[in-house]
Amino acid sequence: MKKMITGALILVSSIFLASCTMTGKNEQVERSLFLENKPLPDSSFIPREVSIVSIGDSLTEGVGDSSGLGGYVPLLENKLEEEEEFRNVSIKNYGKRGNRSDQLLNRLRQEEPIRQSISEADSVIVTIGGNDVMRVFRSNFPSLTYDDFSTGLVQYEERLSNVFSEIRSINPDAAIVLMGIYNPFFVLSSDIEEMELIVAEWNSSARAISEQWDNTAFVEVADIFNSSEQNLLHTDYFHPNDAGYTLIAQRIEEALLSVLIETDS
Questions:
Q1: Residue 248 host element (H or E)
Q2: pLDDT digits over 77-131, tens only?
Q3: pLDDT tens digits, 182-228
Q4: Could you tell me the pTM of the whole model?
Q5: Are the CB atoms for 78 and 246 separated by under 8 Å?
Q6: How many domains does the chain have?
Q7: Would you say residue 174 lies in a domain?
Q8: For 147, phi and psi rounded to 5 degrees?
Q9: What are phi and psi of 33, to 5 degrees?
Q10: What Gene Ontology molecular function terms does this protein carry (predicted)?
Q11: Which residues in 141-178 are b (16+ Cβ under 10 Å) and which e?
Q12: Which CATH number is 72's domain given?
């Protein structure tokens, strides 16, 4: 017998369906951020120039960021500017609200500006998966079962593997940093344990896929939102707010430094 998702989760999920289906403007958002040269720490050390591509869904676009500058992207820029290993850091933002893994894959295959930027990048940061989960909600609401999410996960795994493969075909040497998904439902109800299990399972699969490739890192962020006593969500109770993006930027920086420094060594 299929185990049904509880009524509490169904009720809470319905609140988010409208916000998740609002894609806003459909045009691609591209932002290039350039940093001034930092002073050399000594005459024997030469910092490297770094080119980064951020691609994915609304978390890359920066929905919920009060400044409207791109969420974690400018915060990450500032953090990397403080690192003596780097100079002239360039970040191009190809985040698009509402993107699922199938849509991201199509963009990677069809949009030449994205392909060109990735071909020149030292690292590619990917945020994808949250809208795949919400697609399961929309497609099966209100009669959700765990089997629905299991089926959706299998499809997500295949598409995510293809995303990695496509990035590698464009640039075999770029470090790939994949950010996991988080559960926004805990804000409205602490009793919704099913969603915690679903998010954990999807993140586990995403991590396993990323570990199949060299020069990659997986960034866990679910614990940031679950364990914080501070409100980290925007007023839509779905996307991060400024504080949430600040913590995400810190996690991504840690992962990015690990893969970039490992590449240099």
A1: helix 242-264
A2: 999 989 888 888 999 999 999 999 999 999 999 999 999 999 999 999 999 999 9
A3: 987 765 445 467 888 999 999 999 999 999 999 999 999 999 988 77
A4: 0.82
A5: no
A6: 1
A7: yes
A8: -60, -35
A9: -120, 125
A10: phosphatidylcholine lysophospholipase activity
A11: eeebeeebbeebbeebbebbbbbbebbbebbeebbbbb
A12: 3.40.50.1110
